[in-house]
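User: For my dataset I need records formatted as: sequence, then structure tokens, nothing else. Please produce one.
Assistant:
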Amino acid sequence: MIEEEKVNQSSGDKSSDVSNELRWYVLRVQSGREEKAERLLNALKSKMSEIDSVVIPQEKVTEIKGGKRTLIEKKLYPGYIFIRMKLTDDVWYNIRQTEGLGLFMGMDKPMPLSEIDVSKVFNLIQKSDKEPTLNVTFQKGDTVRVKGGPFESFEGSVEELNIKKGMVKVSMVVFGRPTNVELEYWQLEKV
């Protein structure tokens, strides 16, 4: 009789507890509204001990404009927020009922990320902290137009990229002759 009561009590406890351990989950949000969603989740976090961390994965990217390097943060996964929490029915309900938050990744129930996936994401973040990448969106063969300088409005084809220096070698026709010109990537726009 006592054994039967213990089984009933423990199964009753488990029905309200979806996951008893801290795991990482991915929540979809409207792209461009990640910071607002992060604030909403942090407000829930202050009320619910099951929510441990809220992270918008970002990498540090170097941009060069006018010869000046600036460091910016770029979202690794626009429209997604990572949450470390114990997933209970109560937490799941509160997140679903909060306006401005989307759905969790997973079919019917939120699916936790594997440890391997979590490691990959946080390794990318740590790597960008140590060595920020240069934000160059061109590839060899792309057609580009010069936005400024002596070759303004000229069009050409990307021949070479020097990511470390932020330079792009462009082949264009100047005075009827094919000419290779080396320009800073920010001086160019994709056509």
